[in-house]
Structures are given as structure tokens and as C-alpha cells.
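Have a think about this chain, C-alpha cells included, and walk me through the fold.
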Amino acid sequence: MVLSSSQSRKRFAIFAWVVLAYNLPVILWGAYVRASFSGDGCGAHWPFCNGQVIPQNMAAPMAIEFTHRMMTSADTIAMLVLVAWAFAAFPRQHAVRRYAVWSLVFLFIEALLGAGLVLFRLVAKDQSAGRAGYLSAHLTNTMLLLAAITATAWLANSGAERLRLSELPGKLKTALVLTVLVSVTGAIAALGDTLFPAASLSTGMRQDLSSASSVLLRLRMTHPAIALLGAGYLVWAASSLARRSTAAGTRRAAYGVIGLAMFQLAVGISNLALLAPIWMQLFHLLVADAVWVAIVLLALETAGAPTRQVEPTFSPALGRS
């Protein structure tokens, strides 16, 4: 059966949302690799695990790390399909093509950064400041990857052919940058929680404030304050955009940002109170990714709404837009 152009684009949009959804467990499993001290499970070997394509008799750390590599391999295949399909279904100069290619580029960078963590031995119980810097770059690229896939899916879903990102309101640009900053400090805090677990909240605070503590611990204490300020700014910026916009999609996206930002703040407080167990760290990260995708969707609704030209398809993130 030969699909029409409209049918192909609708199916592409669904596939793009699925690829976006699949990347969330890939990211969470990568965090679990760090939290379970399994980053050196495959030794200083990449792309093969301990020098083998499929290692045998895997201990738990190796199995955890190898599973992440297999998930990333499947992600690469899905992304290649996404790019090929984008070029087959959309005309030249269409923004879907551009953001699909960017998605693949950021995925390749993600793989290279992951390889660097292994080859430079910035894994397991390494406590160097260099590891914190490397993880910050890794996380920033992860967020750019999610943003590119989100843009690809949204563009295919909405019918917009281009985006006017340069015309985004200043408060929304600030919200995007601030969210990356909060996430980076969160990654450093999570690393500190993993390497230097505290027996109690008071003990953890004393560790953070001690001049003899690792730089990772001194950086850890900045995250709660920055996260609180960031959540407040996101709620203010999204509320302002919701009040001023007449577009239903923009208002829905703004309300999504407000709800998720407030929920993430509650999750962060719970994570702190529970002394950051692994399961809570992963849930905290999942909600953080959801907040980021919601902010990107708000930016897309703001930048792309005037250029829509075709009937939108179903969006699992926003309903019909």
C-alpha cells in the first residue's frame, strides 16, 4: 500500500513522539549506571564491552553498563530511521528535516561524550572536579538532544514549516537557559549524593559546608537554592505568557510548565528529605526531563504558531494543538 504524503507525515509524527519517549528510559538508565557505580562495568573499552561484542558471564555492573549500550544502539537505529523518513516525507528546506538531523548530531555527540567518560575513567567512584565538568557537558548535550527531537515531533505534528526562535520573548529565552543551569547543578548534586551519601540531613549539610569537603559537596549545596529560584521564575514566565496569549496551544503549554515546575519542586524537596535514594534520584531526573520538554514545547508553540498550514495530528504531549 502506498501512503499519501499526509498519511506519511502523520505516521512520522507518531514515530517521532515514540522516539522522544524512548529516549527518556535511555537517559534514566544512564543515570542508573552512574548511581549504581557501574560505569566501569565494561572496563576501559568502547564501543565493545570488555573487548567483546557480546560479553559472557556478566556480573551485575557489566550487565547494567552493557544494557545501557544496547539501549543506545537501538536509539541510534531509531534516529537514523527518523532522519531518513524526514527527508522522504518532507520537502527541501522544511524545518522537520533540519531538526531531525540535529537530533542525530546530538545523539552522536552523546555517544562520544559517553565514550569519553569510560575511556578517561570518569566513572564509578571517581571524585575529580573534571568528572563534574564532563557530566555537565554531557547533560547539556542530552537536553539539546531532547529539544531537537521534541522540535522534530512538534513540527511534524503541528504543520508548521519553520520556527522563529529569534523572536521568542526574552523571559522565555531566560527560562530555557535557566532550566539548563538548574539541571546541571542537579547533576552535580546527584553525583555528590552518590559519592558521599549522608546518614542524615544534618550530617549532609555539615558535609556541604565543611571547607575540608570535596568540591563536589560544596557545589551540591547550590542546587536547592538555584532550583527554588528557577521554579519561581518558570512559574512567573509561563503565567505571564498564558495571560497574554490568545493561542490555546500556547496556554496549554504554559499551564503544563507551571504544573510540572511546581511538582518538580515538591519532588526535589522529597529527594532531599529522603537523602536521595537511587529510585528517587531517577524519578527526580524523569520529572526534570518532563519540565524541560514542557518548556521546549512552550517555546515551539510561541515560535511556530503563526506558520502552521495543515491540520495537526494527535500530540501525546499537548493533545490537539
About this structure: The first helix runs from residue 5 to 35. The chain has a mean pLDDT of 88. The radius of gyration is 21 Å.
